[in-house]
TrEMBL record:
Assigned keywords, A-Z: Aminotransferase, Folate biosynthesis, Pyridoxal phosphate, Transferase
Family: Belongs to the class-IV pyridoxal-phosphate-dependent aminotransferase family.
Reaction equations catalysed: 4-amino-4-deoxychorismate = 4-aminobenzoate + pyruvate + H(+); L-valine + 2-oxoglutarate = 3-methyl-2-oxobutanoate + L-glutamate; L-leucine + 2-oxoglutarate = 4-methyl-2-oxopentanoate + L-glutamate; L-isoleucine + 2-oxoglutarate = (S)-3-methyl-2-oxopentanoate + L-glutamate
Gene3D superfamilies, alphabetized: 3.30.470.10, D-amino Acid Aminotransferase, subunit A, domain 2
Function field: Involved in the biosynthesis of p-aminobenzoate (PABA), a precursor of tetrahydrofolate. Converts 4-amino-4-deoxychorismate into 4-aminobenzoate (PABA) and pyruvate. Acts on leucine, isoleucine and valine.
Cofactor: pyridoxal 5'-phosphate
Gene Ontology CC, one term: cytosol
Record's protein name: Aminodeoxychorismate lyase
Pathway, per record: Amino-acid biosynthesis; L-isoleucine biosynthesis; L-isoleucine from 2-oxobutanoate: step 4/4; Amino-acid biosynthesis; L-valine biosynthesis; L-valine from pyruvate: step 4/4; Cofactor biosynthesis; tetrahydrofolate biosynthesis; 4-aminobenzoate from chorismate: step 2/2; Amino-acid biosynthesis; L-leucine biosynthesis; L-leucine from 3-methyl-2-oxobutanoate: step 4/4
PANTHER family: AMINO-ACID AMINOTRANSFERASE, AMINODEOXYCHORISMATE LYASE
Cross-referenced SUPFAM superfamilies: D-aminoacid aminotransferase-like PLP-dependent enzymes
Organism: Affinibrenneria salicis
CDD domains listed in its UniProt record: D-AAT_like
Length: 286
């Protein structure tokens, strides 16, 4: 069975879905996106993702062509049409088809292109949560507005390829001597007094929705948390390292640049935060 996807007001089989070669998402990466986890056929952290989508749109003067209620209905229609129990929904909004290649923004009557599709995958029982990830560092060569969730993901893609070439699962990006974030996740280290450290919000990193909830949950569960930058060297000597994102939730890291972290198995704080986060999601999707 083919996936049913959404393109500009229509639900169609994936092979029938079409976007113009003049679409500005295709030509200029002039598009924003969101990835929302699906658990128990329900959306996790939907409001957070939509709030960030609205912010990304504002920052780029992009207009959402549908209301948030309509967006929610489209997400749920896709879950239903694809019988999706667990996985994610990808949403992309571009500045649309301007009819030709031109750097300037098109006139206001050009409609943005809205595309959504589902991806089935294990979110709760992700086997990597048991083994942990191997990560390597590489330079952060991205642009300077990483707080906007745009589809200009070539640098992230290159970082993942760099990691895979070294038989690692992912890459942490380094700028001016400090880790900014992962290629598609936020990063955390756990100090030897069990304090969790994560980089503060700025234009240097994406303001993760999972991160936002984790900070609240850490405070509720008396887990010490400090927002400050950290270096790869400090991370390699940390007690634990972990990451967060909508698709991985909380995922332990067991080696960085070939150096084993802790005893090489997922650490207790990462495991606890994953558990607490999953409990919160389960409450949302009851
Ligand atoms: N990526 N930082 C970057 C660069 C990201 O691409 C992501 C998410 C995050 C975590 O944000 P959130 O917790 O809101 O998912 C941080 C998504 C999952 C992706 O591109 O597939």
């Amino acid at each position: 069975m083919q996936r049913i996807v959404y393109v500009d007001g229509h639900f169609v089989e994936e092979q029938a879905a079409k976007v113009s070669i003049f679409d500005r998402g295709f030509l200029f990466a002039d598009a924003v996106y969101e990835v929302t986890a699906v658990v128990n056929s329900k959306l996790a952290e939907f409001d957070g993702h939509m709030t960030r989508l609205q912010r990304s749109c504002r920052e780029l003067s992009l207009t959402l062509p549908v209301s948030l209620d309509e967006l929610k209905a489209i997400h749920y229609a896709l879950i239903e049409k694809n019988n999706l129990n667990e996985g994610a929904i990808y949403l992309q909004l571009s500045r649309g088809n301007a009819g030709d290649r031109d750097f300037h923004f098109p006139s206001a009557d050009v409609k943005p292109t809205l595309v959504l599709f589902t991806q089935a995958r294990a979110v709760l029982d992700n086997p990597q949560a048991k083994t942990g990830l191997k990560v390597v560092t590489c330079p952060d060569i991205r642009w300077h507005r990483r707080d906007i969730k745009t589809v200009s993901l070539l640098a992230a893609s290159l970082a993942k390829e760099f990691a895979h070439a070294q038989h690692a699962d992912d890459a942490f990006l380094v700028e001016n001597g400090f880790i900014t974030e992962g290629s598609s996740c936020n990063c955390y280290i756990v100090l030897h007094d069990n304090t969790v450290v994560t980089r503060p919000l700025s234009n240097d990193i994406l303001h993760g929705i999972t991160r936002q909830s984790l900070l609240k949950l850490a405070a509720q569960h008396n887990i010490q948390l400090e927002e400050r930058p950290f270096t790869p060297e400090e991370a390699r000597h940390a007690r634990e390292i972990f990451i967060s994102s909508a698709t991985t939730f909380v995922m332990p890291v067991v080696s960085l640049d070939g150096k084993t972290i802790g005893d090489g198995t997922p650490g207790p704080i990462a495991r606890r935060l994953r558990e607490i986060y999953i409990d919160m999601v389960k409450e949302q999707v009851k």
